[in-house]
Automatic annotation (TrEMBL):
<feature type="domain" description="BioF2-like acetyltransferase">
    <location>
        <begin position="189"/>
        <end position="327"/>
    </location>
</feature>
<dbReference type="InterPro" id="IPR016181">
    <property type="entry name" value="Acyl_CoA_acyltransferase"/>
</dbReference>
<dbReference type="Pfam" id="PF13480">
    <property type="entry name" value="Acetyltransf_6"/>
</dbReference>
<dbReference type="InterPro" id="IPR038740">
    <property type="entry name" value="BioF2-like_GNAT_dom"/>
</dbReference>
<protein>
    <submittedName>
        <fullName>GNAT family N-acetyltransferase</fullName>
    </submittedName>
</protein>
Length: 384
């Protein structure tokens, strides 16, 4: 564990699993105090490390800061070896979660985040730093965007529904307008013409049923992915599938999520996994049976997810994506999140210059080959 002391403030880079595990009580307290998102919780970090990162041979790089001995900032990261270079990325599966630093929103937050960023750059041995989905409203985004060697930056739309203080569920629904010409509750009525519709939250302790439903959701998602020609790495990851189940129930950490399932005549037609709020809940993963696509079971699952969050006093974050249902439930409010990668070492710069040179040389070779096949001699040969 590396140490740097500046008055009473100290930044540490934790690389040892036992020391990481020992952070739980302090981490839980900071997460509650800072009203952290589910992906900033110790439960998420530990499960991600134990079930995804460690099995893939990644290296723990968790940055923490203490003021007078009290834990005031946590940023769980990991180092990934790719060929001859090291990439620093957020700890966790590549499933679409935001990147942010867990810190209380007070006068010291900006300085703590800046210290975390400098620690990541200087003490984690990274040639490249990859930051997916950083909200542009965060100080972390300001720091990343100022870097000199930004390799790429891609913008994503992000939507979230503010549900607290909206009166009753019916009052909230009346304020929304329509989605695809339909008001909330309409899609359930359409599906009910096919049979008996039921919605329930699966008991987290029912591990076997949870695993079976998540497997079914993944199969549905893969079928959809094949139809539309989109394929994400995590969609074929058994580790990510297992990780989602552990978020719902694990013997090691408190449950961080719930599985809501929509059934037709007792058979699943849609499901969605949603995190427990603090007070923000997050829609994590969803899948639906394409056979009943005309009845929009996926939209029913989303509506039931929003209703569950509403009734439990949570706001709901839909994450990145420009899907129409997200902006509908968010009443058209949207922000921007950026996926950014920077070059962080001379060795990394050398890699970039080498790649660019290789592309230039390959382009010159193609031009020469093209001229050779279209020159006078080539035309004469063709004539013969």
């Amino acid at each position: 564990m590396n140490k740097t002391t500046h008055r009473a403030r100290r930044y540490d880079v934790i690389t040892d699993e036992a020391q990481f595990r020992a952070l739980q009580p302090e981490w839980d307290a900071l997460w509650t105090r800072a009203q952290g998102h589910y992906y900033q919780s110790f439960s998420y970090g530990w499960l991600a490390w134990d079930h995804v990162s460690k099995p893939h041979g990644r290296l723990l790089r968790c940055i923490v800061c203490r003021d007078d001995g009290q834990l005031v900032m946590i940023w769980p990261l990991e180092a990934v070896k790719r060929a001859l270079w090291t990439y620093l990325v957020p700890l966790g599966p590549e499933g679409g979660d935001y990147t942010s630093v867990l810190v209380a929103d007070d006068a010291s937050a900006a300085a703590l985040i800046e210290g975390a960023w400098h620690t990541a750059r200087r003490r984690c041995g990274a040639d490249f730093i990859h930051m997916p989905y950083v909200r542009e409203t965060l100080h972390l985004y300001t720091l990343v965007s100022r870097e000199r060697h930004v390799l790429f930056a891609e913008a994503h739309q992000a939507s979230a529904a503010r549900l607290r203080g909206q009166g009753t569920w019916d009052e909230y629904c009346r304020s929304l307008g329509t989605l695809f010409g339909k008001r909330p509750g309409t899609f359930v009525k359409r599906l009910a013409k096919e049979g008996t519709v039921a919605v329930r939250v699966v008991d987290p302790a029912e591990e076997r049923e949870t695993a079976s439903l998540i497997e079914w959701m993944f199969n549905c998602k893969r079928s959809w992915s094949d139809r539309v020609g989109k394929r994400s790495v995590w969609l074929d990851s058994p580790e990510f599938e297992r990780f989602l189940g552990k978020l719902i129930h694990s013997r090691d950490v408190p449950s961080m999520a719930r599985l809501i399932v929509v059934t037709l005549d007792d058979a699943p037609v849609a499901g969605i996994i949603v995190s427990v709020g603090n007070p923000w809940a997050s829609a994590i993963f969803a899948g639906y049976d394409p056979y009943y696509g005309r009845c929009c079971p996926g939209l029913i699952a989303v509506e039931q997810c929003v209703k569950w969050a509403f009734e439990n006093g949570f706001d709901l974050d839909f994450g990145v994506g420009a899907e129409r249902f997200k902006s509908y439930w968010a009443r058209g409010e949207a922000t921007t999140a950026w996926t950014t990668q920077i070059v962080n070492s001379k060795w990394g710069l050398l890699a970039i210059h080498t790649r660019r040179l290789a592309r230039v040389l390959a382009s010159l070779a193609r031009r020469r080959a093209h001229r050779a096949t279209t020159g006078p001699d080539s035309a004469l040969a063709s004539h013969r």
